[in-house]
Amino acid sequence: MPAERDWNRRLASKSILTAVAVFLLAPFVVVLGASFDTAAEYHVTFPPRGFSLASYQAIPLKYAAATGISLTVAVTVAVTSTLIGFCAALGLVRGRLIGRQVLQSFFRLPVQIPFVVTGAVFLQFYYQLAAMTGVNLLSGLLGLIIAHVFVAVPYSIGAIASVLTRFDPTLEEAAESLGATGWATFREVTFPIVRPGVMAGMFYAFIVSFGDIPVALFLVSGAQTTLPVQIFQDIQFDFRPSMLAVSSLVAVFSLAAILGVQKLAGFDMIVPTRQR
Amino acid sequence: MPSCSTHVGKHSMASNANPACCYRLTAPAAGGPPRSRRGRTGIRWEWFLWPSLLVSLVLLVVPQANFVWLSFHGDLGLGQVSAGLTAENYARILTDPFYLSAFWLTVYLSAMTVGFGLMVGFPAAYALARIGGWTASLLLSLILTTSLITVVVKLMGLNIILGSAGLINRAILALALTSSPIPMLNNEFGVFIGLVQYTLPMMIVLLFGVVQTIPVSLEEAAAILGATRAATYWQVILPNAKAGLLASGLIAFNMSMGAFTSAVLLGGGRVRTVPVLIQQAIIQDTDYGKGAALSTMLVGFVFLINVAVVAVSVESSRKRRWQRAG
């Protein structure tokens, strides 16, 4: 009975898939659920005993400040690394190069280094820079932004290069033979086609920066902490139900942002699938 | 065989973390645009590389070299080091069972994570790819989303689920399976779960791409020739996915070896993996020499493992081809 066996096999892998999906989604469901509990201090209850927004009303102001810092850093990083990544991708894909493979591996190196090591490396680098030139990058956000750009550029290159490779150069030639200037060709032909890759690259750079803890832990000063670092430290030393509320908000806004980018850049750009 | 979609093959072999990072720079096999891209404008595209190359050189080579250099000096605190070259930092680590066992623990947890991840992730990715349609799209983007939201949220949820008064323990106690709660936090088990949560979404996304490149017709052919589903799975699907399994396993291994946040929040300071020790050495002990030496060893070790695995797999596939030819 091959049909029945086939059905059974599908059943086996489908049940594993279901279990995996439940396993991966459970932490978020639990955080979201517990955040609506009738909050008792220092205590988490799931399933919630009742519905209350108490933990949302109790969110301290420091999380708003940390969110502002995180957004500032992440947006700056996204824009900067997309610009750098766009140039690099153009050169890598279109340039006449010897040793293209070597260059690709070189640009991918930052992702190979554990984030903790990157944080330590930049902290040490900034110390020495301050000792030698008097420029202290650790006092503001610039040091963190530079380190995040370093980590995020490979993601931008990857996303943009993958679109550029599929780009048909005859389109540009057609535009030019119809009399378009170089800039007009870029604005009207090249960029619209490459845009999904640029959006995806920007999105990944933003995510890398916004979600990072290990690098930021080394490079933020006490007064200016990013949101994940603030939550990270509070989980360990000062847990309150309001953190569940903050985390739920982060999760919901992230989900909304991801759906939005998928709508704008296309599902294919975010999830590397081949639609059939 | 559409070569442009083997995305996860050799290009991402040593890369880390994210699908966007798997460069796909080889032109599609058929009908794709030609390689030489110097159109009529005569733009020298390779010049566009210079800004990013300069940034990368300044940000990668200078600080890293500086850091490795530092690891060969005695430490005087706050980034100040002694003048003479010395290997004492490495000697301190290599002769101390505490650090050696930390390396072993990190490798052990990462290997367990990869093994479990492949065992669970491949069937899940297989089911996703074969279901197809909007169900698969929705599930896949949900799974990917869980890895894009900052990891603290996930870890907070795991704390609630795994804690001694958490969901699982209350269920176990209610069923009277044990008399006391099973400790699942602040130990290696907790960190293991955290690492699986951290790496599994990425593995599934990568393996999904791999399964998509295996035509269903291969399975149908095997079935027509009388193979059972199990035989098809082991002898047709898995061998075809071998390169992808290896690549995504390596990526997950690299991620686990460097994982810091999960080790801290689910290990509760009691599970000291190398990344945790690096952070402690630098932030708490301000012992830069030791931190730098530990970091250099970790990066070097992970790099060597990657090279070894790739070399072995290339060698074995060459041997097999040789046997088939002979």
Would you give an account of this structure?
The complex is a heterodimer of chains A (276) and B (326). In chain A, 50% of the residues are buried. Chain A is an all-alpha fold and 276 residues long. Chain A has helices spanning 2-35, 54-57, 61-94, 100-112, 115-133, 142-166, 170-177, 182-211, 214-219, 227-237, 241-265, 267-270. In chain A, helix 1 (2-35) crosses helix 11, helix 3 crosses helix 8 (182-211) and helix 3 (61-94) crosses helix 10. In chain B, a hairpin with a 5-residue loop joins strand 1 (73-75) and strand 2 (81-85). Chain B has a two-stranded antiparallel ribbon with strand order 1-2. With 326 residues, chain B is mainly α.
In short:
The complex is a heterodimer of chains A (276) and B (326). By secondary structure, chain A is mainly alpha-helical.
How would you summarize the topology of this molecule?
The complex is a heterodimer of chains A (276) and B (326).
Chain A lengths: L1 H34 L18 H4 L3 H34 L5 H13 L2 H19 L8 H25 L3 H8 L4 H30 L2 H6 L7 H11 L3 H25 L1 H4 L6
Helix pairs in contact in A: 1-11, 3-6, 3-8, 3-10, 4-6, 6-8, 7-8, 8-11
Chain B lengths: L48 H23 L1 E3 L5 E5 L2 H7 L2 H35 L1 H16 L2 H12 L4 H8 L13 H25 L3 H9 L4 H12 L1 H17 L2 H7 L6 H11 L3 H38 L1
Antiparallel strand pairs in B: 1-2
Helix pairs in contact in B: 1-13, 2-13, 3-7, 3-10, 4-7, 5-7, 5-11, 7-10, 7-11, 8-9, 10-13, 12-13
